[in-house]
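Quarterly update, task 2.4: BIS(adenosine)-5'-pentaphosphate-bound model.
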Amino acid sequence: MGDMILLGAPGAGKGTQGVNLAKLYGTPQISTGDILRENVRNKTPLGAKAKGFMDRGALVTDEIVVDMVIDRIAKPDCQSGFMLDGFPRNLAQAAALEEMLTKMNRSIDHVIGIEVANKELIRRLTGRRVCRKCSASYHTIFNPPQNIGRCDKCGEEIYQRDDDKEETIAERLKVYESETHPLISYYTEKGLYRAIDGIGGVDSITDAITGAIDKASDNS
Ligand code: AP5
């Protein structure tokens, strides 16, 4: 599968699909949101810098996230491929990613865009619950845990993310439109963007993604 980016608005299902794809392809899922939340939880200096931006639905500064991704991609488990979830988030981050990969003699092979209309994104985000320990994601209606309030995987408490409140969701969707959406044209021009309909069962969407990757790999 090589080096891949999962693109999509907040709530499109990047995290959910990333879990399935990481299992299928055996490549690490690198979620900048998860790394930032872990830093906030552990009260690190990086977490302290990021928290204010995250709480109001704004992007954390490029400098912070780019350095984070450089460190993560350099780890040995990324040698034969990785999957970025939530990065890049704007054109400056995309340019920084290209620069870091060129230095490593590699390049992005696939950009998968999970496309979901805003109304559905809001339903997904307002109902989302996340495990405090392992970050597994649930939904109060679409994917509830077996025991209310507890993670099926590790038994830890599940909670609502601070940025999954309605006013913050509206801001995140605005930021997506202005900052991240332009990446679709950017990667389409490079011949890398594959659009996937993000409505439907989780496994059928995974099948659509793997189908698109196979097709693109056959043509290259
Ligand atoms: P981040 O954690 O990346 O949040 P996001 O992009 O807003 O994406 P989400 O995690 O909200 O959604 P998702 O697409 O992963 O959906 P999920 O699979 O969970 O970023 C958070 C913050 O960190 C940012 O606002 C920013 O401040 C900062 N940040 C992170 N990266 C940054 C960067 N590069 N630069 C600067 N700042 C950065 O699914 C959502 C819900 O829908 C779940 O409940 C799930 O169960 C449900 N669901 C999933 N698929 C389906 C389906 N097919 N049908 C029905 N329900 C479904």
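Highlight for this quarter: Residues 202-219 form the longest helix (18 residues).
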